[in-house]
Amino acid sequence: MPGIIQSLLDTDLYKFTMMQAVLHQFPGAQVQYKFKCRTQGAQLAPYIDEIREEIRRLCSLRFTDDELDYMRGLRFVKSDFVDFLGLFRLNEKYITLTAQDNGEIDIRVNGPWLHTIMFEIPVLAIVSEVFYRNTQPGLDLAEGRRRLDAKLSLIDKPELAGIRIADYGTRRRFSRDWQREVLAAMKACLGAGEGSRFTGTSNVLFAKELGLRPMGTMAHEYLQASQALGPRLRDSQVFAFEKWAQEYRGDLGIALSDVYGMNAFLRDFDMYFCKLFDGARHDSGDPFSWGERMIAHYALNRCDPRTKIILFSDGLDFPRCIELFQRFHGRIQVAFGVGTNLTNDLGPEALQIVLKMIECNGQPVAKISDTPGKTMVEDEGYLTYLRQVFDLPAPPPATAPINRPVPLIR
Fold first, then answer.
1. Distance CA 115, CA 98 (A)
2. pLDDT at 357 over 70
3. For the whole prediction, is pTM greater than 0.85?
4. Is residue 50 within 8 Å of residue 130, measured between CB atoms?
């Protein structure tokens, strides 16, 4: 029986773009990642052996010549990086899985950043698919197809001709086959590529197989690692953006804005970066306020906002995409990355799972999110120190997240 992950291309593009930067800029960095399931009531421990076996299969994969040729054809991918990928494989010794007494599982990835960066997306996809094939066996996909058709009909309208939506849903998909079906349906309904409402997918394998544009630049881990790799913590965000610009020389120019909150991002994203980068990505906090602040910031820094891009990617559904498009279209270029609502909206509640970097070179690292509950760190003292360094307010008192229990159908 083939594994859930059958190709190392079955991951998000930004893992490759960050991996290339790591190869050239930080080849000796050591990191640790930690898994977390934010969905209350989800019991993953009963399936730990099955997850472990799927990871073992993942670690047996190598890039094929055809896949390497595809990677070499991407304009921003350098020849020596493809040569490295030709030798690459994930090593099982860097990942551990432990069942917890409360039914949860602890997953840790610990080792060289260059050799562990590719674990995150396929491991999350494995956890998600193993969970659903055990708890929802034989699920009728008719409801998922009905919901997808309803979404596509929402945006397949003349007044929304300028909307641009990409798939960002690999990590929490219901299954590999379902994601592929969703992408094929979107391409058939909305077209694909330049001028189309459907602009592409973060999944490199499906981009290759379906003739779609692979999408992505940087993720939180890249800026988090810079807390340990840069010369000074307060300058770590500037350091990360400068290193990115050195690597890609103006390509892949979408900056992630929410590792230290919007105030700190705007302080660091000065006129130089405003003009150098194509735009910015929103991934936490109120998206309408964020968009207004980005437009004002560009104008303040002598950039015509209409020449820049704002990319929204935080828990989107199609009605929210339409709201944001109607607010900002014509004032700035607007794009959307929709994840779980595309690839895991079939009736059962989607698992909210992450695998985040928590340490680099023996030092804690963290993201300070504009959305309560998205911050993830093991060392609370470090988090307090990080807030002080970036002059951030203390967080509001924590409240328990409201999640419906995920039914366990056996």
1. 21
2. yes
3. yes
4. yes
